[in-house]
Amino acid sequence: MAPASTASGSSHKVDDALALIAEMPHTWPMWPGRTDLHRRLLKKAPYAIVYAIDRASIFVVAVEHAADRTTRRGPNQRGHAPGGKPRVSVDSFRCDPMYPQVERAVAAILASSKVVAPVELIVRLGWLSTADLENWRFGRVPYLERVIRCNLTRLSRFLRILGFHCHELNLTASQTAYVRWGKGRRTALRFTKTGDPVLERVYARHFVWSGIGLSCRLLVVDLWVVRDRDFRWLPVAKRASPRA
């Protein structure tokens, strides 16, 4: 059994996550293989919250332990082709090892903003420093990929996962013009070394949340932790709190 302090810490993290779910229930994707349940991964606790949206209410049906997350992956569902090369598609992107990072980063942005920008996520993932980003914005760096600490294959996979995830969240894609900051001519900035127009558009594509959500109440009834087919209760307070 986990120490009391650990259980208490996990309980507080779940409580915080539940509050955010109540504010933006459609932010998190569907539980793989289901069309009636959503799932939110917790960043610093080994749990995922599984919930359903029904008209004016959100029903939290379970807290899934991290140990069970791999059980839903079949032998050919790890997001890789038989030869071992990455293969990200609309059907497999959730199984990619990078997906939880992207999902959490997008959720963190949407907690305080309505716009998800690939460049901001790259900074959040630790691949780009704010100093290097500023140098690029002022035209001191010829193209952004030069200062991103990540190989191009991984970057390409990230951009595809982000696109699929934001589409699943019903965010609206919007092209944004990136121009040089500072005095002088406001010339267009470049993301790639070659200036490939397709990749340039992908980097400059922002995803916008409409801000339209549900006026709902959050119901947590008999919240259980699902692990190894056993049901173990996580001490999270039951609630039925209408939103203001």
Based on the structure given, which CATH architecture of the largest domain is correct?
A: 2-Layer Sandwich
Radius of gyration: 20 Å
Largest sheet: 7 strands, mixed
Mean pLDDT: 74
E-strand count: 10
- The proportion of residues forming helix, as a percent range, comes to 25-40%
CATH class of the largest domain: Alpha Beta
Summarize this structure as a short list of keywords or feature phrases:
244 residues, alpha+beta, YaeB-like fold, 2 domains, seven-stranded mixed beta sheet, 10 strands, 19% strand, elongated, disordered C terminus
Brief overview:
The protein has 244 residues and is α+β, with helices and mostly antiparallel strands. The chain is built from six helices and ten strands, in the order αβββαβαααβαβββββ.
